[in-house]
Amino acid sequence: MKFTLSNEKIKSYNGGSSTNFPKYTSQLINWANQNAQGTRARVVGQMSDLFPEYTAQSETVSMDEWNTWYSERHPDAIENATDKISEQIENLKTAIKLIDRNMIRDWVEDLVITKTYNGLYVQEVILSAIAERKQATFRLATPSEESKGIDGFVGDTAYSVKADTYKTMNRLSEQIDYKMVYYTKTKTGLKIEVEE
Asked: Are 188 and 111 contained in the same domain?
């Protein structure tokens, strides 16, 4: 079965309405929130637990009742989240005034040239080192394999090579079903952690 639901139809189910924000503002607030972590569970509560708890205890479910129920249990949460995000928006306002065409060009060049070279070169070096230790051959992934999260093979084993900071990037939804290799750049080289 295939079907679509319009925003109006969705609103008719829950009786709620959503705010219409001016163009780009919602994206910027969302971005600021990602940095500020204003709506994390430790600030506003775990919604995936709270909303089912509310619906289980309520005879009638409505936006107004949900608002009352939530506000009684987390009276400062909305203000605390707003404060965190507002502070980050001020940081963005300051930063955006510094951005000009030359900075954008430098950023694009750094991404396309420097980071691509460094990232792909590091992958090749790491895969080569693993192959040497395993006394096997290695090869880099094809574009089709890369789209699945594979960076290369040592023998028949697929590996995904990531900087150690990848572990903390919760917003990434990429599902990787291959052996992971994490590396940390140090002043003297790379620290490598290979999943076995």
From this structure: yes
Confirm whether 84 is domain-assigned: yes
Helix axes 77-96, 25-36, angle to 10 degrees: 110
Could you tell me the residue range of the domain that residue 174 belongs to? 107-194
- Phi, psi (degrees; rounded to nearest 5) at 26: -65, -40
Task: Give 98-122 pLDDT, tens digit per residue.
Answer: 999 999 999 999 888 888 787 788 8
| Interatomic CA distance for residues 135 and 130, integer angstroms | 8
Global pTM reads: 0.61
192 burial class (0-12, 13-18, 19+ CB within 10 angstroms)? middle
Residues near 82 by beta carbon (within 8 Å), at least 6 away in sequence: 38
